[in-house]
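FAQ: What does the model actually see?

It sees only this:
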Amino acid sequence: MTNQRKVIIDALKSSKAHPSADMVYDYVRARIPNVSLGTVYRNLESMYQSSMIVKIETPGGQKRFDFNTEPHPHFHCEKCGKIEDVPFELHAPVPDEASEWMKRRVITSSTLNYRGLCEECSHII
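And it is asked to produce this:
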């Protein structure tokens, strides 16, 4: 594990904001001044490909990252862009035909994302 990767992991662990690559870069650059943006991007992509982190796609196309790889839903504020973990599990009933369909497959990951206005932005309306 390289020093850059350790600092990238620190950036992700220390943030509840689900930072973008640029935000991670700012954190890393403050600790390793000569690091390049490309190095941060390559490490984030490599860590995502090896399932060390989660990549969250946003409607605007900017990718955000999460160190928590346990399946959990996210909430994305459409006004300020904040991404939060939903702090509880949500379960929907699974119809019988879905259960049969799922028995014939191996699911390795899933995502559940909600969109709307966060607590701060919903007071602005």
